[in-house]
Design goal:
Elements lengths: L7 H25 L3 H15 L3 H4 L10 E3 L19 E3 L13 H11 L1
Antiparallel strand pairs: 1-2
Helix pairs in contact: 2-4
């Protein structure tokens, strides 16, 4: 078994970066959503969507327009650190024109309604 040993300086640097990331995320979430209720609804839709089987999610796979579902390890945002792909799933939408989202998947249909306001 291999253990990753990092210096205290590196550990501190990582903690600071993580905290900054959370603060930036909070900043954007506060500006995107009118209320905590609306934000909770979006998180619930996200949870429902990512719990779907891969065969359903893959029906709306990522396109060149940077919209759609990205499977686990489907992106390599940092190929040096994650040469096998990023350990995450994603679902990319735009603030405008989400008419391409299908009405056949409930969580996506609900997401589209929120995006269209």
């Amino acid at each position: 078994m291999h253990f990753c040993r990092i210096s205290l300086r590196e550990e501190y640097r990582r903690k600071v970066l993580l905290l900054k990331s959370f603060l930036i995320l909070q900043f954007f979430l506060n500006r995107l959503f009118a209320s905590n209720e609306e934000l909770g609804t979006v998180f619930d839709l996200s949870r429902r969507f990512f719990a779907l089987p891969n065969e359903i999610k893959s029906k709306i796979s990522w396109t060149e327009s940077n919209r759609g579902y990205v499977k686990m390890k489907g992106e390599k945002l940092d190929p040096v650190t994650n040469p096998m792909g990023d350990p995450k799933e994603a679902f990319n939408v735009l603030a405008t024109d989400n008419s391409w989202l299908p009405d056949t998947i409930d969580s996506v249909k609900d997401m589209r309604q929120i995006l269209e306001g």
